[in-house]
Specification:
Radius of gyration: 23 Å
Structural class: alpha+beta
Number of helices: 14
Oligomer: single chain
Distance between the termini: 36 Å
Strand content: 15-25%
Length: 565
């Protein structure tokens, strides 16, 4: 629930200095795949999001460490939304300064959230450009998407700058999404599976590989899970029911989403949304499931940011969220990413597990100059406060065999966030073991947050889309809801025993040191196609690696390990 905030106290800024660029390193160039339509009319309404500076972020981070560390006396003692709000809500001065600044420009139509650290305000483009000098709003289109963004940096007054992290709705464009969801690595006409083999990954195949039985379904009334969609994606209830009818006959399951948060789009269902909801509900079977569908209520909104704002405004949320969404770190401002990290911490201290796909571009590649390339990490995959899921393939694509690296599996080292303590020894062991076989150090930041944390099958899934069974759907968008569903099953057992939900998993996951997971030791993922690395990024190795993390779940062993006090 949002609260309407109306500002009455006028404040005039005299001798205003406009040197305050909040996002000085934000890439404001519009990608070539967006077509410029023209300047927006001065009277057109925009909806901008103001991220107010929070208090006690260092205390929040320490609290997250304590409630997530199984060796801590505070482990599992999660906070309520109200407790989080009282900890981080902006100071009275910050709230007053920002509100007075907006009021001085006649902006009174604003909504806030329970934590008081976001304001979402409606204003005309003319007022927005006066409020944020330097900004110039244009409309851009790509496929069926239309957005309004500024192709120039914006500033705020110096006395307001210290009270804001960033303003949303000016720069960040929706990424293209999965480029290769239906890759086919072999010719089906030339190579047919033998008897006893399979024709692609289904819920039954996943349950066989990860050792889930028919009894491994949800039963706790206070358990739930969710997927989130942002890129004009939505699911079809009919497709979900058809999928469960085709593939869910061997285990108890639900065939309907319990809650849709947001407004579903119109037209054909999307592969991405269908994949996510069908597989979290078949792996996390019989567990109440939500779908956050947030294309943005307005062209000037940032859908991912809108979802983050929702988390700050809902006291009742599912315990596990899986998100198949990411962007290049270098396309985002540091201020934006640091603030989003704080939002992840806020979720973690509440006992919420956030799982992000590691991406489908391997280590990625960015050209710095004609003679120099570097790997390209993805965010939020590179955040230290989420669990990032990579991808694997069966060694034999037609049989339930051991797993190897899926060459698309995203992974590497952040250029923005330092390596968290919980993974330092695991990463050091990998670097020492691989040694001379590592890519040149100029390609990555050896002291950055390393990802992914774990993995699952990401290759050759069956999905029902628009009433049609579609084979060979691939990507870490598949592996992430599969892992999420299994963690929901673990939460189910914990809740039935009166234990708290898992919350932020990484500190506990890394203390397992690979216990209860199938180690993936073969294969490399993609990197830069140049003379130095020749298209190769990092390679899998025993225990943790920056391609598949600690490996893939062995469910009964993982359940036992995560049920232990």
């Amino acid at each position: 629930m949002s609260y309407l905030v109306t500002f009455f106290i006028p404040l005039l800024f005299s001798s205003v200095v406009w040197s305050g660029y909040l996002e000085f390193n934000q890439d404001v160039l519009i990608p070539h795949d967006w077509t410029h339509v023209g300047r927006v009319e001065p009277t057109e309404k925009l909806e901008l999001t103001f991220a107010l500076k929070q208090q006690n972020v260092d205390v929040l981070e320490e609290t997250l460490r304590l409630v997530s560390d199984p060796d801590s006396a505070q482990y599992g003692k999660h906070l309520t939304l109200e407790e989080v709000s009282s900890l981080v809500q902006p100071s009275e001065l910050t709230q007053k300064m920002v509100r007075h600044w907006l009021q001085s420009h006649g902006i009174t139509n604003c909504l806030t959230v329970r934590t008081q650290d976001f304001l979402q305000c409606t204003m005309t483009a003319e007022v927005a450009e006066m409020l944020l000098p330097g900004s110039k709003f244009h409309r851009y289109i790509r496929d069926n998407q239309s957005v309004v963004r500024s192709s120039a940096p914006y500033a705020v007054p110096d006395d307001v700058q210290q009270h804001l992290d960033f303003v949303g709705g000016l720069h960040r464009l929706p990424p293209k999404g999965q480029q290769d969801l239906t890759k086919t690595p072999f010719n089906m006409k030339q190579k047919r599976p033998k008897a006893g083999a399979h024709l692609g990954v289904t819920p039954a195949i996943l349950r066989t590989r990860y050792n889930l039985t028919a009894a491994d379904v949800g039963r706790a009334h206070n358990n739930s899970q969710a997927v989130a969609q942002f890129l004009e994606q939505f699911y079809s209830p009919t497709d979900l029911a058809e999928f469960m009818s085709m593939f869910g006959h061997s285990f108890q399951h639900l065939s309907q989403v319990d809650r849709v948060v947001g407004t579903q789009g119109k037209g054909k269902a999307g592969i991405e949304a269908s994949l996510d909801i069908e597989y979290i509900m078949s792996t996390g079977a019989n567990i109440s499931s939500w779908l956050f569908t947030n294309p943005g209520r307005h062209e000037s909104q940032e859908p991912f940011l809108q979802w983050m704002v929702l988390l700050s405004n809902m006291s009742d949320l599912p315990w596990v969220h899986t998100i198949s969404y990411g962007d290049d770190e270098d396309s985002l401002s540091t201020a934006y990413m640091m603030r989003i990290n704080t939002e992840f911490m806020k979720a973690g201290v509440r006992g919420i597990s956030l799982l992000f796909a590691s991406g489908d571009s391997g280590a990625g590649c960015r050209q710095l100059s004609k003679a120099q390339n570097t790997f390209r990490p993805s965010f939020p995959a590179s955040s230290p406060y989420v669990t990032t899921v990579g991808g694997t393939s069966f060694k034999n694509p037609f049989k339930v065999t051991y797993e190897v690296t899926d060459y698309i599996s995203g992974g590497g080292f952040s250029n923005v966030f330092k390596m968290p303590d919980y993974q330092a020894s695991a990463v050091a062991a990998y670097m020492k073991m691989v040694g001379a076989k590592l890519p040149p150090q100029s390609y990555y930041n050896t002291s950055g947050r390393a990802y992914p944390d774990m993995a699952a099958l990401s290759d050759n899934y069956w999905v029902v889309v628009n009433r049609v069974p579609v084979p060979w759907v691939s990507g870490t968008s598949a592996s992430t809801p599969v892992v999420g569903g299994m963690l929901s099953l673990v939460n189910d057992q914990r809740l039935l025993k009166g234990l708290p939900p898992l919350g932020f998993l990484n500190p506990r996951l890394y203390k397992l040191k690979g216990e209860a997971l199938f180690d993936v030791t073969e294969g490399c993922h993609l990197g830069c196609l140049d003379e130095q690395v020749q298209g190769k990024g990092f390679c899998a190795a025993p225990l943790w690696d920056p391609v598949t993390g600690w490996g893939t779940p062995n469910y009964p062993a993982l359940l036992a390990a995560l049920l232990a006090e």
